[in-house]
Amino acid sequence: MPRATALLLLALVLVGRPALAADGRRTDERYDFIVGELERGEGNAALWCNGWALGFALATAGQGAVALAAGDRGWRIDNAVGAASSGLGLIGTLIEPRTPITAAAELRAMDSSTPRARALRLRRAEQLLRSAAQEEVDGRSWFPHVAGAATTLAASAVLWYGYDRYASGWLNLVGGTLVCELQIASRPTAAARSYRAYFDRYASGRAAAALAPQRLWVRPQGLGLGLGGEW
Fold first, then answer.
1. Residue 96 CA to chain centroid, in angstroms?
2. Residue 103's closest CA among 189, 27, 37?
3. CA-CA distance, 133 to 208, in Å (whole number)?
4. Among candidates 65, 97, 63, which has minimal Cα distance to 81?
């Protein structure tokens, strides 16, 4: 190899090495930010999910036991409907995506032995952060409000029209609505805040703009009203 060519290749290596090192530091910095944010929010997310699941499970078991043991027919009906409603709440909580709870553990288990592995890990970290944030935003969107109201109204309708339990139906409607709204309002939002903070810091907020809640609209349409949504 000519001496000039060898010197040129050596110069390129020496110039490129600091750039590669800087890229590696930026990759690690961004990853550390994401995994740190996910770890900080993990405890509250687990407390919310497990706490509501336990609450619904206890309500289902307790009302179910009363429905089986009660001697009064009306009391049995009220508690049977209540147990069914709580059971639906338990199922809904159990099938909730749990990315804010599991994301940090998945990232810690990934390979980080090479620059390429760390770059892939960062890409996965960004995906998980966005998924966790979107789950939190969707959990406070119009859909859980509508789903909770529909479930509560259906249970109350069973009491009203199926068994003439009007006072119990109204009590179920008010109490069920309060429980649904409290569950939605208490949902953690740490991942959504972290997502916006990450892209504000590292991408000028461009990707964060894509994170939007589901929305429900009602507007005049024809001779009546149209109902729709966008997400």
1. 7
2. 37
3. 10
4. 63
Closest CA to 123 of 27, 4, 231: 27
Structure tokens at 95: 């099938």
CA distances from 42 to 7, 109, 162 (A): 52, 16, 44
Domain ranges of the chain: 26-212
Tens-level pLDDT at each residue, the chain (231 residues): 555 554 444 444 444 444 444 556 899 999 999 999 999 999 999 999 999 999 999 999 999 999 999 889 999 999 999 999 999 999 999 999 999 999 999 999 999 999 999 999 999 999 999 999 999 999 998 989 999 999 999 999 999 999 999 999 999 999 999 999 999 999 999 999 999 999 888 875 454 545 555 444 443 333 333 344 444
Q: What is the residue whose two structure tokens read 């961004």? A: 30
- Give CA–CA dist 147/164, Å, rounded: 24
Calpha distance 200→213 (Å, rounded): 19
Q: How far apart are CA 35 and CA 118, in angstroms?
A: 13
Residue 202, both tokens: 């590292």
Provide, for the chain, the percentages of residues in helix, strand and coil under a 3-state DSSP scheme, each rounded to the nearest 5.
80, 5, 15
Q: What pTM was estimated for this model as a whole?
A: 0.78
Q: Give the span between the Cα atoms of 120 and 110, in whole angstroms.
A: 9
Q: What is the DSSP secondary-structure string of 40-76?
A: HHHHHHHHHHHHHHHHHHHHHHHHHHHHHH-SSHHHH
